[in-house]
Amino acid sequence: MRHFAFLSDDDRTRLFHTPPVDLHHSSDPRLLATALGATLYTPGDRPELAASVIKQSKKGAVSMVLCLEDSIADSAVPAAEDNVAATLVELHGCGELPLLFVRVRTPEQILLLAERAGAALSVLAGFVVPKFRNDDGYGQRFFDALHEVTDRGLVPDHRLRLMPILESPAMIHAETRTQVLSEIARVLLDNRDDVLAVRIGTTDLSSVFGLRRGRDLTIYDVQVVAAVIGDIVNVLGRGSDGFVITGPVWEHYADTERLLRPQLRLTPFTEANEEALRRELLVRNFDGLLREITLDHANGLLGKTVIHPTHVALVHALSVISHEEYLDATAITQPGAGGVAASPSRNKMNEMKPHQMWAEKTLQRADAFGVAAADATFVDFLEVSML
Length: 387
Hints:
By secondary structure, the chain is an alpha/beta fold. It contains 17 helices and twelve strands.
């Protein structure tokens, strides 16, 4: 699998200086975490679930989650478990699929799915753990269940991994946040090779205060939640070996009444002769999402949880490394580079030591999502992705 696999050869040549690399379950886990992109969630009780996975994969989804938690009613869990297990069996042997995860409620559910799916468990890349915490060893129990499944040898060709979601009330309360994050960091570091990425559940965090952001605002405008995001990045995203932390869900996908002015500049679309595309993005409420994706990147988050297929293209279009970023990152990481120098584009300063980690992460994103051609912009990638 790879990002933008749906493009024609002509479009790929036109748009990319360097195209995205191929991805496999056995690829370097840091690359896989970086390449998650828009992780599309779908309820585990949905009919014809296997067909939906295949359809969304062909349309550009590289990671998907079959959800057994909040997206389905408590009374529907047994039927959803049956449906997900049957879906894995149906997908087994279907060829190229996205990175597929199951969002479980309990550690026991991991073992249950392993028993029901058998060898078809190899379809999965791992499991998503909601409301992750580690008081009384709760978080470690999920890793223990994962290790038990691994010991059974059901997935011999790659390693299953967990993606914990940080969203518990103790996470947002100021007086308990530091201790909770420290405990979470400890258990995640103790099981570092079993963690693919860390996800943030801002819907649950907002609900503690009865808050819900509208389509005119980003999660970074909700200060009590933005503070938590900053602390999570501070504790878990440190250094070159920190965890990949993914962006929170954007809840809006249909037109609603607009209170504030649009957040999407006209100039880039005018220069690309794509004013109609800009109008479509505004009508479909996508300008707020595009702004939040940009702020995710600025705050150290990669990828995003999405609940609607139309969001996938936007997340991926804004994840492509611009040609200018690539030139900067290459200049900073070249052997013997040091001191300060003007950027290759002659429009900014590159400091070789302070910008080193940014450059390394940028080049990893370049592997995952590709490098845009010198004359290609995010507008061009939006255009081909939203056709």
